[in-house]
C-alpha cells in the first residue's frame, strides 16, 4: 500500500507495496511497492490561463503536434498540473524550486498565487524495511523518463529522499496512527497566498487549480486578499490483495486520513468476483468513504492508445460516421501475454482470465469504443455514456464463450510449465487462463455487431489490440482481384495498444506499374516514428489523475455493477457446470475452439479462419454448413484441395455432432474431455487419432504444429511439395476417425449405417473436389495404413466430382 501526501496545493499520500506485483514505471513492469514516500512537488513559475476544473481537460485536449512545437496557446498546456503530470516520477524539482513560491500572472486580473508543494511517498506494508532499503529498491527501477533528461541523477536523488517506509498491519488502528504521526512530521505547513484583483478569478484559481474540487464549498463572494492555510492531501493507493481492502480503508480513514484537505483511496482490481461480492465491497468501502473519494483503477484506461480512442472517434470526421453497424462488421478486442501466471497463481486461480482481463480491461475499452458522444469531456458525462452502453449489452451466454488452459510444452529443449504445474495453483484446477467471447450491444448503433474478445496467458506473443473489421464494399469493381476472401476485400482499422503503439488502416491499393494488380497496404501511424516523446506508463497517468481529482479514467460504482451484470451469469455457469477448459500448449495461439467461435461471428463469408492464412481458395463449394461458404481459385495444387476437403469434412462433423455424435459417441467425447469437438483438437488432443498421427507424422513436425499454431504450420508445410506425408495425413485422419466411429457404432460396417451417418454423408457428398485422382491416392494410402478401405458407395457419396471453378 502506498500513501502519497503533500502539503500545499498538492500534498499527496501515496503508498506502494514492496510486493511482487508490477508497477509499471518508465515503460517497464517493475515490482509494485507497498510504500508511502514523499515526492517534493515543484512549484512552476509559469504564465497561466486558469480554467475551472471542468474545463481543465479541454486545455489538455488542445492539439500538440508531437514533432513540431505547437504555436497555439501554449499557456494552456503549461498549467502546474500539466507540468506535474509531465514530471511526477521523472522530474523532481530542485530544493530551490520547491522552496520557491511560484508566481502566476493570472490574465489581466493580475491575481497572483504563491504555492509551495511538498510531495512525499510512504510505503506501508507488513514486511520490515528501512527507508534506505525502500529507496534502494525504488532506485533500481527509477529513471528520468518524461522530462528532458537533464540533471537526472540529482532529480532522482531528490525523489528518493522523499520516499519513506513504515511497517504495520493492515487492520491495526495503532499502526495507522503511527503512520499518521510520521506523515505529519513530513507534512509541515504551507502557505497559500492568493493575491488577486478580481474575486471571481481568485475563486476560479482556488477551485480549479489550487485545491481542486475541495474548493467547491468555498463561496466565491469571499474577498480574499491573503489566505494562509494548511492543507493536507492524502492519497492511499491500495495495491494489496482485495481481501484486506476494507481493513486498510477502515484504519486509514479513522486513523490516518487528512484532517484538512482531501483523502482519496485508489483501489486496485479485482473489485469483487461477481455482482454480489462487488456490491458488498462497494457497500463496505462506502462505510468509510464517499464515492468521490474512491478511485477504482483500471490501468488499461491509462494506456495512451486507450485514451486516444475518443480523440480518434470524436475529433476526426472520417471515423465517426463509420462507427456503427452500418459499416462495421465486427470489433475484436485482443489481449495476449507470452508468459503464464508465474507465481501469481494464488491470486489468479481464484479469478481466472475472464475476471482478470475481460470483465475490466477489455470491457472498459469496449465501452469507450462503443459509447455515444458524451455531452462533454467531463468525467461524469463520459462515465454516463459508458454506463449506458454497458447496460445496453446482452449478458454473455455460455454458448458464446470458449475457455482454455495452458498445458506444458517443450520447445527448443526448454520445457514450459502447465498452469497447474505452478505450485500456487491447486492440482486439477479448471480455472481458465484463456477465454474468447462474443458480446453484443443491443442498441441502434451496434445491433448485431459481434464484439469478439480474446484474452490469454502463455500464448505466442504479448500484445493488446483493437481490430475493427469493416464490411465489404458493395458491388466492388475489383472483386475479381480478391475473389471471395472477405478479409482482403475489406478495410480493417487496427489500434495497437501495446507493444509498439500504432494505429493503422488496411486499405486496398494499386501496385504501381502498368498492370492492374492490387495489394493490401497500411496507412500507418507508428508512434515511435511519429512522436519523439516517450509514452507515459498507464500508472503514471492514473496516479496523477487521482492526485488531480480527475475521475474520467476511473470506474464509477454503477459502471462496475453493469460490468459484473454482463459476466456474472456465465461465470457462475462455468463454475457450476465445471466446464473443462480446452487445453492449449504454452506458447501457442490458444485453443482451437476460439477460432471456431470467431468463425461463427466474424462474418458469414469468413467461416474458415484456418484457410485465411493460405490466401488461396479452392473450387470446393460447401453446402450444408450453416453459412454458405465458397472458395475458389485456379492455381491450387491437389493436396491443398484435399486439405480443404478434409477440413470441411471436419466442419461437417462439428456441425452435425450435436445432433447425434453427442449421444452416440459419449466415450470419445469423455476421453477427450472436451465440450466442443474440432478436427484440430481431435488431432492434437484425443488419444485415438493421436495414434494415427504418431504413425504418420515425425515427432518434430508434431511439435511444430503445437508450438507454432496452425496457420504458420500449414503454410510452411504446404509450401513444401516434398512433404508428401501431409497429403496422406490429411486424408487419413478423418477417414480413420470415421472408420473408428463406424466400427464403434455399426460394428465396423459402414454400410449398416442408417440415419445418423447419412446425416454426415449427405452434406459431405456435396463437397466437390476437382481432382479425382488425388482422393483415390489418399484412399489407397489410408487403406494401406489403417487396413480399411471405405466401401465404394461411401467414396462415391463423399463426392469425388470434377468440378470446374464455379466462382470467378
Ligand atoms: N500484478 C499485476 O499485474 C496487477 C495487480 N493488480 C492488483 O494490484 C494489487 C496488488 O497486486 P500484487 O502486488 O501483485 O499483489 P501481492 O499479492 O504481491 O500483494 C501486495 C502486498 O500485499 C501484501 N499481502 C499479500 N498477501 C497478503 C495477505 N494475504 N494478507 C495481507 N497482506 C498481504 C504483501 O505485503 P506484506 O506481506 O509486506 O504486507 C504484498 O507485498 C492486487 O489487488 C492485484 O489484484 C492489478 C492489475 C495488475
Ligand atoms: O491487470 C492485469 O494486467 C496485467 C497486464 O498488464 P499490462 O499493462 O502489462 O498489459 C496482467 O498480467 C495481470 O494478470 C492482470 O491482473
From TrEMBL:
<protein>
    <submittedName>
        <fullName>Uncharacterized protein</fullName>
    </submittedName>
</protein>
